[in-house]
Design goal:
Elements: E1 2-9, E2 18-21, H1 37-47, E3 77-85, H2 88-95, E4 104-112, E5 117-121, E6 124-126, H3 128-135, H4 152-157, H5 161-171, H6 175-186
Antiparallel strand pairs: 1-2, 1-3, 3-4, 4-5, 5-6
Bound molecules: adenosine-5'-triphosphate (ATP) and magnesium ion (MG).
Magnesium ion (MG) binds next to helix 1.
Family: Belongs to the SMC family.
Protein name: Chromosome partition protein Smc
Subunit structure: Homodimer.
Amino acid sequence: MRLKHIKLAGFKSFVDPTKVPFEQQMTAVVGPNGCGKSNIIDAVRWVLGESSAKNLRGDAMTDVIFNGAASRKPVGQASVELVFEDVAGHLQDSLAGKVAERNEISIRRVVTRDATNTYFLNGAKCRRKDITDIFLGTGLGPRSYAIIEQGMISRLIESKPQELRIFIEEAAGISKYKERRRDTENR
Ligand code: ATP
Ligand code: MG
């Protein structure tokens, strides 16, 4: 499974619609301080369902919406879309037939100033849970190990056994079954 591209509009400093392609092998994002490199990573985490403003380096969840600049007015909503390809083998189970014909999936999240969040899977409205369920056990949740940020390695080394277990369970593919069990028990 590969992240093919990300589209941002009204998200943090990306006010105009911007498409960031990720080519085969490796992509590096370079640029001067404050140009928006980390905002791209925040966008990936956000669309995957991140619900903590602090983890997105803000105070409120609506802080991700472009807030204006010297020459631009603030906008009313933020939108981020991720497109993954080669998803069939990896997500067969969780997608249950929802894979698009071209073996791609698109997930999108939109937030408006009144803090209303809307999620889309292949263009159709869905719940946040539909998105988080898809990526459980793939290593690509909003807080999982696919995104390795500054300080994470030392945090991992110094983490308590219970915290370490969460990562190991995700890597072993157990976390999705635990989540389903929790769901069933709560019904
Ligand atoms: P560094 O090299 O210092 O890590 P960076 O390229 O990672 O920099 P980011 O942290 O991604 O930079 O971007 C910070 C910029 O994004 C700042 O200029 C900040 O004003 C802008 N920014 C963040 N949130 C918003 C928002 N809601 N509206 C407008 N601009 C925003
Ligand atoms: Mg940065």
